[in-house]
């Protein structure tokens, strides 16, 4: 089982990424299971909002290099989260890397705990943060996006909050979630759906305009010699050939 779905608790349904042995990497199985679960919850009248969380020390380590999802399926999942008529709230208290940041960026709200760390590691394995830019660039501080996209540096929860990647960072992820979830529980369902449409309209326009080009770019880069060398080095736990 790649994820678990709870029963609604006062309107909040929790979806848990549950492949800790694979660091909740984005495999074809996980992407498909998450898309199916979200489709069901979007139509569930008992669900006011979705809480996306994780087991283990990683929220999501990015694409599963041994069983990667189809790029188009991953883009469709990101768009589905953005377009879902229910708010999606991320609870992060672990590592988030590469494509996992796209998953996080597609969520409407996010709370991060002290064990969280973040890095756009794509350039270190020979690719680029292509399709994940669709939900991320509209919310990130431009200077921070330039720095962390280009360097692949790791940063913490406080910095993630400062640059707009997460809504709030705290010493306890669950405590940080309380005001967010209480606010959603107090909101009228129809008003929530319409308000989310206002907030996501431009992001969805970007998906419609740019998805095909960015999916093609991602596929081209993942098929490149640099990417093959970088991913092989990563899997074999050795230095990439271009490191000076």
Model description:
With 244 residues, this protein is an alpha/beta fold. The protein has nine helices and ten strands. A six-stranded mixed β-sheet has the order 1-2-3-5-7-10, sandwiched between helices. Helix 1 runs parallel beside helix 2 and helix 2 (71-83) runs antiparallel to helix 8. This is Enoyl-CoA hydratase family protein. InterPro entries: ClpP/crotonase-like_dom_sf, Enoyl-CoA_hydra/iso, Enoyl-CoA_hydra_C, Enoyl-CoA_Hydratase/Isomerase.
Short description:
The chain is α/β, with parallel strands linked by helices and 244 residues long. The protein contains nine helices and ten strands.
CATH superfamily: 2-enoyl-CoA Hydratase, Chain A, domain 1
The total beta strand count reads 10
How many helix segments? Answer: 9
Q: What kind of sheet is the major sheet?
A: 6 strands, mixed
Radius of gyration: 17 Å
Cα shape: globular
Taken in chain order, the helices and strands follow as: EEHEEHEEHEEHHEHEHHH
Provide the CATH architecture: Alpha-Beta Complex
Could you name the ranges where pLDDT drops below 50 across 5 or more consecutive residues? none
β-sheet strand percentage:
15-25%
Mean pLDDT: 96
- Which fold name is given in CATH as the topology? 2-enoyl-CoA Hydratase, Chain A, domain 1
Strand order across the largest sheet:
1-2-3-5-7-10
- Domains counted in the coordinates: how many? 1
Indicate the CATH class.
Alpha Beta
